[in-house]
Request: fold
Amino acid sequence: MPAFTDYNIDSLAEFLAATGHRPEHARGLLGTFYGQSGRIDLDAQSIPKSLRAILRDRVAERRSCVLLRNPSRDGTVKLLVGMQSGGAVESVLMPTVARPERAAGCVSSQIGCAMGCDFCASTKNGFERNLEAGEIVEQVLHLGREAAESERRLATIVFMGMGEPMLNLSNVTEAIRRISDRRIPSISRRCITVSTVGIVPGIDTLADSGLNVHLAVSLHAPDDATRAKIIPMNRRWDVASIVEATHRYQRITSRVPVIEYTMLDGLNDSEDQAHLLAKILGGMRAHINLIPYNAIGPGLSGTTYQAPPMERMERFLQILRDARFSCHFRITRGDDVNAACGQLRLSVLGST
Ligand code: SAH
Reply:
């Protein structure tokens, strides 16, 4: 049975009309549903009795449930969300530092991941399937309820959970349209970020979609030799083509891109690599996020990585700041609850 998250206002209106009811009810119903983070008491809605009965029979309130809730000491809450049609993904709520009324949510776009990045836990069990748009929206609603519990508002969404959003782009963009629909309680597109390993056609399609969300690019190395060691996809789209696509994205959307850089000891953390990164980004206005590697045990290749010592990461940051980039460390949160990508699912389901 489909759920409310499987509809947008237009498709719900069509459904209502097909059952002989006024399509105008769609907006009110979804407005209530999203306003209450995915809850709706049909008895309290001013709709005909006959419609109430139809909705009860044919549209579920939910099609996923929270299988596991892992709160961290720092306020981060990691959820394992089980989908009715099978499989489970991770969604994480992070309280916004210095904004006590806000929280950010991190959602997954696929069950498992096919990218094979050597330092990432999401890929260890391979790829299972794409999430449907409604299943992505459900994660946002679970996180919205979780935020409300701590008296915060879910204000930001990042597609940095499990999976590669650009390889499930039609469902990701449809989910973004549903959660950012201004006719009902929604999240601003200015507060939504899609993160990619560097799928160039996906970056271009997202740029042309008119959604104007933020783009984050997981670069992790300024040269192809280093990047290919940790990211198999680099053989398909190399550093230069990804940087060009990021420039195009910025030109079309006017959004300042985020360059993500997971720091791995002795691999991508040298002063030369920091200078090279500044050089290849050239005149691009970009925020560079340095992410200290979060240990996941040996990667698919058998290599065990480590985060660099703090002084080396600070030197890397300083070189980029001297080159006039906005550069910050991503604070690693939720360490005690396996909050890095794919870690919770792996610790529950085990590695095969
Ligand atoms: N597939 C997308 C989104 C998911 S990963 C992408 O590649 O961008 C979200 C971010 O977390 C990526 O930048 C990824 O490289 C990073 N990441 C994954 N595992 C990590 C780990 N163990 N430590 C630090 N960062 C990690």
